[in-house]
Amino acid sequence: MSETTQGTKTKLSQWEALMLESLRGLGWSDDELIDRVMRQELPQDDSKFEFDYSGLAALANEQQETFISAVKDGYTIKYNTIRGIHSWILLTFKQDAQLMLEPPDAEAIYAELSDSEAKRLASVLSFGWQIKTVSRDAEQALTSGKQVEPGKQTYEIKPIAGN
């Protein structure tokens, strides 16, 4: 369930954020996305996520201001999981980032992002997560020596230690 607090960004559940980004991936304008969701004119999702957009439509109709603000002004995800962030990067930036789950206390995601993409990702992450560039040496090891796309850097996204 979503929430809005005075003076802060709208907060969406991780699943709501993934559904929203999935629909953004269809190339709809903000206004078209809002209109289609509110009228429940939504596609059937045949992706690996198998989204049922009726939950997003319910949010849009029950908390219209919250939904419109999330679409137009951005949002923060209430609670992230490592796999949820990985999925968000896939849906938003069309990138299958590197997911490292071992050892359990060092799990992280490595993604090649532009500065604007990294800022957008940082803006949606819930409390307890950090995003930072990795050193060139670490980047070389992560990419097996292949060049990172021009205008992008490798970022590490991981839980803040002690959380």
Instruction: Classify the secondary structure makeup into a structural class.
Output: alpha+beta
Q: What topology, given as strand order, has the largest sheet?
A: 3-4-6-5
Helix content: 40-55%
Unreliable sequence segments: none
Q: Indicate the radius of gyration in whole angstroms.
A: 17 Å
Distance between the termini: 23 Å
User: Number of helix segments?
Assistant: 7
The coarse silhouette is elongated
What characteristics describe this protein?
four-stranded antiparallel β-sheet, 6 strands, alpha+beta, two-stranded parallel sheet, 2 domains, 163 residues
Textual characterization of the structure:
The protein has 2 domains: 10-77, no CATH class; 92-159, no CATH class. Helix content is 42%, strand content 17%. The chain has 7 helices and 6 strands; from the N terminus they run E-H-H-H-H-E-H-E-E-H-E-H-E. It has helices at 14-24, 30-38, 54-62, 64-73, 82-93, 115-124, 136-142, and strands at 10-12, 75-77, 98-100, 108-113, 129-133, 153-159. The protein has a 4-stranded antiparallel sheet with strand order 3-4-6-5. The longest helix has 12 residues, at 82-93. The model has no long low-confidence stretch (mean pLDDT 89).
Which SSEs are present, and which pair or pack?
Blueprint: E1 10-12, H1 14-24, H2 30-38, H3 54-62, H4 64-73, E2 75-77, H5 82-93, E3 98-100, E4 108-113, H6 115-124, E5 129-133, H7 136-142, E6 153-159
Parallel strand pairs: 1-2
Antiparallel strand pairs: 3-4, 4-6, 5-6
Helix pairs in contact: 1-5, 2-4, 3-4
